[in-house]
Amino acid sequence: MRFRAQVTNANLLLRVVQCIEKLSKNAMLKLTQDKLHIIVLTDMDSGLQLWSDVVAVALFSEYRVESLHNNEIYLEFNIDNLQRALRSAQGAQRVTLKLTKKQNLPVLSLVIKNISGTGREMTLNQDVPVRVLTPDQVSAIMEPQVPTGPVHIMMPPLNSVRSITERLKLMGDRVSIAANREGQVTMRVANDRVEITTYFRGLQNMTHDSSEPSSQLDRPSHEFYTATVDMKNFTRFLQSYHIAPKNIVCCILEHRALVFYVYIGSTSMFGDAGVDNLNDQTCGSLTYYIPVRQV
Asked: What is the DSSP string of the chain?
């Protein structure tokens, strides 16, 4: 089992890790020959899941992954430990990331090289302890399979949503997100004394899959589909601001889940070919699966 790469975009890698720091203590890293995946499964009470992938060429050069299991490596790591190590690598002249052993224990080792003010080369080693997972251990971990859903809509600018959420979360512990097929999204919070709804209009609906069963489209385009989720989970999704996403697609699956597709990079020419085409034009994505809650 081997993994070694030169880190060419330590800033982006750090930002991806910062997106997950409030989700859980630990996460899983999946390394394949062309992508890096980070997976977070929160506790049963929360139910939130994050599945992310970034193409290797967006982060690394001289990227090498080898194993006896389809050249895939699965590691469990502490999020804070990796985040601290990556902070040390910001602005470095050269950063090497490799899987190795220290005192017979597996670690992800960052070898960080810089030039001092006097012109001397300095080397800093940062080791992140990991647990190597076997194929049997990860065989039961599968990304949720969700239907297409009747509504896919581009979210408003994330900074606006974050600002509004900071005020709404003081009013209640659940938030209802609703959208229709006419470019409208609402956020609603209610308690025993007050109900507040924020409206967004003029948003972009993604083209609907023509193969979707007609029962999914039994409402006029102006009527809303709604999902109510824990406010805590919704604010966790908002941590994706760290990667400064240009495009976030919201999919509402009533009585089931709220799904957010957060795309890394700018994609202004997504056209009308749907979410899959949008993903093809980015260097990666983060997908948040948030279960609905009863009001």
From this structure: -EEEEEES-HHHHHHHHHHHTTT-SEEEEEE-SSEEEEEEE--TTT--EEEEEEEGGGTEEEEEEE-TTTT-EEEEEEHHHHHHHHHHTTT-SEEEEEEEEETTEEEEEEEEEEE-TTS-EEEEEEEEEEEEEPHHHHTT---------SEEEEPPPHHHHHHHHHHHTTT-SEEEEEE-TTS-EEEEEE-SS-EEEEEE-SPPBPPPPTTS-GGGG-S-TTS-EEEEEEHHHHHHHGGGGGG--SEEEEEEETTTEEEEEEEES--S--TTS-HHHHHHTSSEEEEEEEE----
Give 10-residue mean pLDDT values along the chain (295 residues): 95 94 95 96 85 94 94 97 96 95 96 89 95 91 86 94 94 95 96 94 79 60 95 96 91 94 62 43 86 82
**Is the pTM of the predicted complex or chain greater than 0.85?**
yes
